[in-house]
């Protein structure tokens, strides 16, 4: 039974550290660009988009589809980078163990 008690303490410690990490990741940001830097997107570790910047030169009323594609590419890249950041930080916390459902 003593081993089970130690395991529970370890699990509680890990859970506490994970909650702290989630709070920290909510404040960390990643940046992605598209169109040679004409579109810039900033996202958090909680995969929330904070800002989208669009340079005037890329806005062409006759080619709205291109602008939409660039924005979509930058947003998807920012969210992928945010997920990579979260995975990397979680891996550090769990020592590389793959524990499904942690984040």
CATH superfamily: Nucleoid-associated protein YbaB-like domain
Could you say how many structural domains there are in total?
1
SS summary, helix count: 2
Largest sheet: 3 strands, antiparallel
CATH class: Alpha Beta
Mean pLDDT: 87
Gyration radius, in Å:
19 Å
- Which outline best applies? rod-shaped
What keywords describe this structure?
2 helices, 3 strands, 17% strand
Verbal overview:
The chain has 103 residues and is an alpha+beta fold. The chain has one domain (2-94): Nucleoid-associated protein YbaB-like domain (Ybab, Chain: A, 2-Layer Sandwich), CATH 3.30.1310.10. Helices cover 55% and strands 17% of the residues. The protein contains 2 helices and 3 strands. It has helices spanning 2-27, 64-94, and strands at residues 29-34, 39-44, 49-54. The protein has a 3-stranded antiparallel β-sheet. The two termini are 30 Å apart.
């Amino acid at each position: 039974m003593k081993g089970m008690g130690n395991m529970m303490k370890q699990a509680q410690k890990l859970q506490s550290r994970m909650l702290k990490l989630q709070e920290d990741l909510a404040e960390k940001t990643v940046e992605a660009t598209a169109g040679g830097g004409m579109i810039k997107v900033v996202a958090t570790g909680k995969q929330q988009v904070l800002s989208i910047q669009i340079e005037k030169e890329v806005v062409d009323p006759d080619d709205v589809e291109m602008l939409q594609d660039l924005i979509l590419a930058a947003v998807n890249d920012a969210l992928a980078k945010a997920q990579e950041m979260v995975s990397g930080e979680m891996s550090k916390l769990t020592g590389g163990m793959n524990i499904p459902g942690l984040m």
